[in-house]
Amino acid sequence: MLRFPCHIRNNQRLHLLRRLSLFSSNSAFMVSKHLLKTSPSSFTLLPLTLSPKHLSTPSKRLIPCLSSKPIYKNRSLSLRSNGFSSLTYLNVSAPAPAPVYSEDLEERPLDLHSLEILKHKLKKLGIDISECVPGHENRLMCPSCNGGDSEEISLSIFISQDGCSASWLCFRAKCGWKGYTKAFADGKSSFESFSRINKVKVKRQVTVESLQLEPLCNQLISYFAERMISAETLKRNAVMQKRTCNEIAIAFTYWRKKDLVNCKYRDIDKKFWQEKDTETIFYGLNDIDDASDIIIVEGEMDKLAMEEAGFRNCVSVPDGAPPSVSQKEVPAEEQDTKYQYLWNCKEYLNKASRIILATDGDLPGQALAEELARRLGRERCWRVRWPKKNDVDYFKDANEVLMYLGPSVLKDVIEDAELYPIRGLFNFRDFFDEIDKYYHRTLGYEFGVSTGWRALDDLYNVVPGELTIVTGVPNSGKSEWIDSLLCNLNQSVGWKFALCSMENKVRDHARKLLEKYVRRPFFEASYGSSVERMSVEELEEGKKWLSETFYLIRCENDSLPSIKWVLDLARAAVLRHGVRGLVIDPYNELDHQRPVNQTETEYVSQMLTMIKRFAQHHSCHVWFVAHPRQLHHWIGAPPNLYDISGSAHFINKCDNGIVVHRNRDPEAGPVDQVQVCVRKVRNKVVGTIGDAFLSYDRVTGVYMDIDEPQKKR
Ligand SMILES: Nc1ncnc2c1ncn2[C@@H]1O[C@H](COP(=O)(O)OP(=O)(O)OP(=O)(O)O)[C@@H](O)[C@H]1O
């Protein structure tokens, strides 16, 4: 049925009707679905092809060819005015009728003062007409329904050519908000407040008789039998039929106590429609009265299937599943239009201590389960796992399981329901896959990567995602040792690294790394002893290696980098270049501005948490160099990890703690000997505390096992 804005005068209506009847003969169904609603005050024009069934309900059968294309948010569309959606928009090939609003209105000049007042009035209703064009149909987001799940731009608004009045209508069947106002209306203007407009509509009372429902015929009983639903179950659930012309549709009756509340129809082609203006409630509501365990399914057939498996305490949602989980907060009860059935049935649900969500296994089914769980409370929800159909697919819903595997398997599925996951609350079971891979060592690096020095193999191995704090007195060789370690790791497992080494000039750092790689001094200088300096060819090869292996994080001005800045760039290096390790050297060269009320201890704790999160999230090992505080009475022994300046959190929070120390007293032992003190290893699988001794080759900066002869690359 077609409905016109009530402000259109009768002669205009007739004018419009003439044009529409012309138009409808060509394209009776090419109008938006909102135009199918009935209204006692409206003129009606029934397409001859409509059956009585179409009159009783906003049938989905009509909708596909009528529904408008989604229009995306924040677009105000000005469409040619023809009283309903523009022809261009609907892609109709029939000739466009002339504008339906009468000429005298169209010819009145725009009154800017009236338009301003109108704009102000409409703004109060949430309608912003600043971009609308008078004399045309405009589309806006409906402030009443916000375009529903699809966020369709569904409010059609027409502002008269003179800017003195506006009428609007939301095309969405579930909203249908309409109104009319004038800039200078008297006290009885049709201008209504938003809250009044949003008020709950009076629901239609229906009975079996008024809907002309009949007992199921044998043909339909056989249809259900094929789906393993017995006549007894059909009878108990008052499944009926309705005749419309030559068709018979299944009628699923929705009851609350003894009252018929709604009726949903399904034809043989699996098309659904339901009685309009009725209350939406769960299907099978009476069956969960006083039940402490409730099963919720996604369709009436599944509810009936559950009964065949022995579960009467089951209800079906009335409206199917949403395409995806909404990103928005759960709306307030009265605004939660799509899930009104939950609120309408809340006294039944409140009593339940366990709610099993047995929605379909597809994505909309899962989205429905999530939307239900969000509203019902995840803590009392359970979910089912539908059995496998073959190696790839799963059975979709209760009725499929009943048909193909039988009632006892369906019963098992429900009995094996598992707790609905709550974000942040886990069971080891959730990790069994990963635990198995860990056991079979298929995750990779379960024992860490060897440092390349035998002396350290039992003490320290490098695990992706861990944080190693490296300390030692100044000049002990911390940076040199880390660089040497990176070279070893690159050579053994091909890892790449991000370097944030604030104390090194780029060219110096390149020199040190190249010397380790080429194993020759960069210069011909005294430190090079008699070893020949690297050739130009070796330099070139080394440069290629440098550029393929390292990414530099450096502040291009003189400012100190903050830890967040460093980690953001490191993240980019992980994502863009696949780096597996990050060196931050040293802590005291970072910008440590902190809020006045934060202690250094709190600051260090927070900073280390950020670094660890980065490491874990990106499976990237982080070496973080921190200096010990000033040791006033230092007698040459390796410092302690608790001596690190700033906070005890360095040792508390790290996964591994290493002190690099070297002997500087020739009388106490060889001066090229370096002591790598492993002071903390959190993961016993990859190491333990203890000391390893390496020798340092001053010419190339390479560290070696003591008994190892000078290696050639
Ligand atoms: N075992 C060693 N024997 C002789 N010289 C060494 C030894 N280890 C490191 N060096 C030298 O000490 C200097 C400083 O090394 P490195 O920069 O690695 O020390 P560091 O502990 O990081 O120093 P800082 O704390 O000042 O940053 C380098 O010139 C390096 O060649």
TrEMBL record:
Superkingdom classification of source: Eukaryota
GO biological process, one term: DNA replication
Chain ranges of the SF4 helicase domain: 442-710
Annotated GO MF terms: 5'-3' DNA helicase activity; ATP binding; single-stranded DNA binding
A Pfam match: Toprim_4
Domain annotation Toprim: ranges: 292-410
Name under which the protein is recorded: Twinkle homolog protein, chloroplastic/mitochondrial isoform X1
Species, as recorded: Durio zibethinus
Gene: LOC111275401
